[in-house]
Amino acid sequence: EAQVTQNPRYLITVTGKKLTVTCSQNMNHEYMSWYRQDPGLGLRQIYYSMNVEVTDKGDVPEGYKVSRKEKRNFPLILESPSPNQTSLYFCASRLGRTSEAFFGQGTRLTVV
Amino acid sequence: QQPVQSPQAVILREGEDAVINCSSSKALYSVHWYRQKHGEAPVFLMILLKGGEQKGHDKISASFNEKKQQSSLYLTASQLSYSGTYFCGTVSGTYKYIFGTGTRLKVLA
Questions:
Q1: Shortest CA distance to B69 belongs to which of B96, B97, B100, B102?
Q2: Is B101 on the interface with A (CB under 8 A)?
Q3: pLDDT (tens digit, 9 = 90+) per residue, A46-91?
Q4: What are phi and psi of A83, to 5 degrees?
Q5: Which of A50, B92, B104, B108 could form a disulfide with B96 if both were Cys (CB 3.0 to 4.6 A apart)?
């Protein structure tokens, strides 16, 4: 089944404790992105990747890191999480430049 | 900059129609529409690739006016299942993919 898999679905952590949210797609898509969703602010892009080893900042990259060492995986790293990073996070992938986005199930992160 | 959607929110009775607009300050080369149920991932509805294109899916259709840099989503004879938040999505620049500000739609029985 074609899908984008995110883990974990829910995470509660403490300020400053490094964490990684994984994202994997099995559709051989070129493009992958991370978004955060906050009430009233819609979906804001954090980082995106156009191919292996090629990434770029989105609109809200501060406090986040990403890597794309393999085509299928695009982990999101929070080196030192803070409470303002509490949010619902989505990973998405696309086949080509004008293709639609396929989303992972989402990760609800709470930083206390 | 995010495309701006209007209205921000709308409440309908079952069977009523609604129109959701997506306007961009930059050129639109393609537009996608998504629906998101609360707490779930957005789900793709349809794609419009070129100006003047219109598409339909059951009682949901969309149009794309490339010159006006806008797209509209039409929901006809709305059903309870149409409730959710609707987003337009589009490519910004060469590779970046962004979403509109969103429209919350609630259909009442």
A1: B100
A2: yes
A3: 999 999 999 999 999 999 999 999 999 999 999 999 999 999 999 9
A4: -55, -30
A5: B92
